[in-house]
């Protein structure tokens, strides 16, 4: 009996040691529910530059008089909402715990040169910097390291994709934004064929023919907030196949059969955009598609 008791005790001790070692494996610890502070202390209104570097890319966002711009690797207007969101996210990143203070552990948590280096500036002066590493076991948490500190931190509210987006995702994809109330007329031109849809007494008409209200609602909704899917940065001007004018802005469309997409340019900007066919076709209607069937 004593022999069996000793064996059971030995098995229990072995299991306890194994469980303890597993829980101590890097990146597998559970965080407690508390917080030991914020990762960064920044003033959202004072931030005027954000630098994001990875082993494969480098991005610079700068605040100018006209708003936020992508300054590197190209110069173009940035998505204002996305930049505001990333600043807000940086501001609320919470440190849950210190995982390690050993420099040799940086590569384990990817907070070394393989991580994402983020630097925030206020009034042109560096205010905060950190390296974002791999995601933790809990998908709402990641590992990070402040500036030159050796401490590896478990941080809540951060993910690599928040910062490691393609450049096109940081760019302003707005082709046209306008008030629906200002759209009283829509002019179409397809080559030598042209017609106008006008709002008269709360109803749409093509000449004397009444237009379908549901169709016009869809057109106006699409024109009031048209977003691109991608960008065309070459100097080659596509062959224009259709033009649509409303609220003083003209949209020029060029269909590319090879890739089955539309190139679109607004008269308010020299930039050409890529738009998927389903989105362009919500605007590009022929007269017979608009007029009510008698």
Based on Cα principal axes, name the global outline.
elongated
Tally of discrete structural domains? 2
The helix content, as a percent range, equals 10-25%
DSSP summary, beta strand count: 20
- Structural classification: alpha+beta
Average pLDDT reading: 89
Strand proportion: 35-45%
Sheet with the most strands: spatial strand order: 4-3-2-1-6-7-8-9-5
Q: What order do the helices and strands follow? A: HEEEEHEHEEEEHHEEEEEHEEEEEEHH
Keywords:
294 residues; alpha+beta; Immunoglobulin-like; 2 domains; nine-stranded antiparallel beta sheet; 8 helices; 20 strands
Summarize the structure.
The chain has 294 residues and is an alpha+beta fold. Helices cover 22% and strands 38% of the residues. It folds into 2 domains: 47-170, no CATH class; 174-290, Immunoglobulin-like, CATH 2.60.40.
Describe this structure in words.
The strands form three sheets. A nine-stranded antiparallel beta sheet has the order 4-3-2-1-6-7-8-9-5, covered by helices on one side. A nine-stranded antiparallel beta sheet has the order 14-13-12-11-17-18-19-20-16. The protein has a two-stranded antiparallel ribbon with strand order 10-15. Helix content is 22%, strand content 38%. It folds into two domains: 47-170, no CATH class; 174-290, Sandwich (Immunoglobulin-like). It is elongated and about 90 Å long. The protein has helices at residues 2-23, 80-91, 106-109, 160-163, 167-170, 213-224, 277-280, 287-290; strands spanning 47-53, 58-64, 67-72, 76-77, 94-100, 116-122, 125-135, 141-146, 152-156, 174-177, 185-190, 193-200, 203-206, 209-210, 225-227, 230-232, 242-246, 249-256, 261-266, 272-275. The termini are far apart. It is of the alpha+beta class. The chain has eight helices and 20 strands.
